[in-house]
Design a protein that fits this description.
Layout: E1 8-11, H1 20-27, E2 31-34, E3 38-42, H2 48-57, E4 64-67, H3 70-83, E5 96-99, H4 102-110, H5 124-128, E6 140-146, H6 152-159, E7 163-174, H7 179-187, E8 193-195, H8 199-208, H9 211-219, E9 222-224, H10 227-236, E10 241-243, H11 249-262
Parallel strand pairs: 1-2, 1-8, 4-5, 4-6, 6-7, 8-9, 9-10
Antiparallel strand pairs: 3-7
Helix pairs in contact: 1-11, 3-4
């Protein structure tokens, strides 16, 4: 397939061990520059590790398990596999799994877990709109996530009467390792498009781009996975934002192909 032949794209998310999205882009003919502006650092030291282990060992005490991201789903299921075999068959049938987005749900499905996802808005608001999360009084929920982030989900479920535990599995750290390459690509007009998967990544990208190249960056089309990130980009000053249906590679590539074909 050569639907994206000639397209030069800058991808700034953390490196993935098996990046299906990147492979699909290059398979469609695009030239891809992978320049992460953030790193994912799983917690491997105490006391964080001890806290995670305690929550995993008590996993059968929860009625609700929520995975905030693909990284949370990957690391969370790896932790679960250490202490629980044959997930989810050996746990209570009352345990319900949730994923913020389609991409996260797809990863969970690969690992034998069927998670409910929002019908439209793939964010905390979308999850909270699900009927199955309306009446949660007296239930215990475990939220798998990274360090920090939004508190809306935990706060609202708590207000609805649920007991909330947050299992923070990793931290996100900005990195300037690829700053020179990003600046060179912008200065030489070496890219046609920037791909950003979250508002946090967009913030980190802006942090490494100097004022002298900021206008060049914001003139480039920006591919994002959701309307929430698109709104952040527009408010930041990006002039052309392409919004995919979700972070799933198939949705991101489809949106990109549609935009690129319209230019020809």
């Amino acid at each position: 397939m050569t639907a994206l032949k000639g397209l030069r794209a800058l991808l700034v998310r953390p490196e993935q061990s098996d990046d299906l999205f990147a492979r699909q882009l290059m398979g469609a003919g695009a030239t891809l520059y992978c320049c992460p502006v953030m790193l994912i650092k799983p917690f491997t030291e105490t006391p964080e590790e001890n806290q995670i282990k305690s929550q995993i060992l008590n996993f059968d005490q929860y009625q609700i398990a929520i995975f905030i991201s693909r990284t949370a789903a990957r690391l969370g299921t790896e932790w679960l596999a250490r202490y629980w075999t044959a997930l989810p068959e050996n746990l209570s049938q009352n345990l319900r799994y949730y994923a913020v987005g389609k991409s996260t749900a797809a990863l969970l499905r690969e690992r034998g877990i069927d998670a409910e996802v929002p019908e439209q808005a793939f964010n905390s608001e979308g999850l909270l709109a699900l009927p199955s999360l309306n009446n949660v009084a007296g239930e215990k929920a475990l939220i798998f996530s990274g360090e920090g982030g939004r508190t809306l989900l935990a706060d609202t479920l708590s207000q609805r009467g649920a007991s909330i535990s947050e299992c923070e599995l990793y931290r996100r750290e900005p990195t300037a390792e690829f700053t020179d390459q990003i600046i060179e690509l912008l200065a030489s007009e070496g890219v046609d498009l920037v791909i950003v998967h979250s508002g946090e990544l967009l913030k980190s990208l802006l942090a490494v781009v100097p004022e002298s190249q900021r206008s060049a960056l914001m003139r480039l089309p920006l591919l994002v996975p959701s309307e929430r990130v698109a709104e952040i980009a527009r408010n930041t000053g990006f002039q052309a934002v392409i919004c995919a249906g979700s972070a799933l590679p198939v949705d991101m590539v489809s949106a990109l192909r549609g935009w690129y074909s319209s230019l020809r």
